[in-house]
Amino acid sequence: MAKVKKRQIVEVLLETHGRTFARELGIDLRRNTPAPLFRLLCLSLLTSAPLGADAAMRACKALGDTGWTTPAKLADSTWEQRVKVLNENGYARYDEKTARQLGDLADHLHQAYEGDLRRLRDEAAGDAKKARRLLKEFKGIGGVGADIFLREVQVAWEEFRPFADKMTLKASAKLKLGDDAQTLAKRVDSADFPRLVAALVRTQLAKEHDRVLEQASDL
User: Fold this and answer.
1) Dihedral sign (CA 96, 102, 105, 109)
2) Where do the structural domains in the chain lie, given as residue ranges?
3) pLDDT by residue (tens digit) across 26-76?
4) CATH topology of domain 32-154
5) How many angstroms separate the CA atoms of 41 and 153, rounded?
6) What span, in angstroms and rounded, lies between the C-alpha atoms of 135 and 183?
7) Whole-structure pTM value
């Protein structure tokens, strides 16, 4: 294989996988309004379970399709209703626990931030470590879930950009694009960085590093 330039690798990544997970679900984080941010928080919780990313995406979509798009609407649901939706959408082994965690999540969001995650943003004041700690105060969201939230929310919360989690940097290192967020951020314009991060995560999940390199070599 001919030597592949980094710009070619980035071009292939953005073209083939350059869509954030929130965007795939129709969640427009650029609006920076409470409902999309809440849906991202739910996705972060769902992805924290030891299940595949596809199951988490399917379950998050089901929550939205059911109409549970705000903390208040989710709080109006019963535990049994949440269990049923989760059970039918890939969470058969974790439906009861996750249904309880979703209820706790809505309660904590209401009590701590009046249902608006922008208040968490204000409290973090641009400190990613503090934001990560505050996110982990939601039951069911650990380090992985907090990282997923920050990874996706940087579309709207520019003060946390560039943010890259372990999965992103693992793929980035394999593709020789850098092993830290600052180095990776130099590969694209700031507005495209969240897309590049998502593309790297998707590449890592699908184990498509070699395929990306092959496609880049053809450019």
Assistant:
1) negative
2) 6-20+163-217, 32-154
3) 999 999 999 999 999 999 999 887 788 899 999 999 999 999 999 999 999
4) Endonuclease III; domain 1 (1.10.340)
5) 10
6) 26
7) 0.94
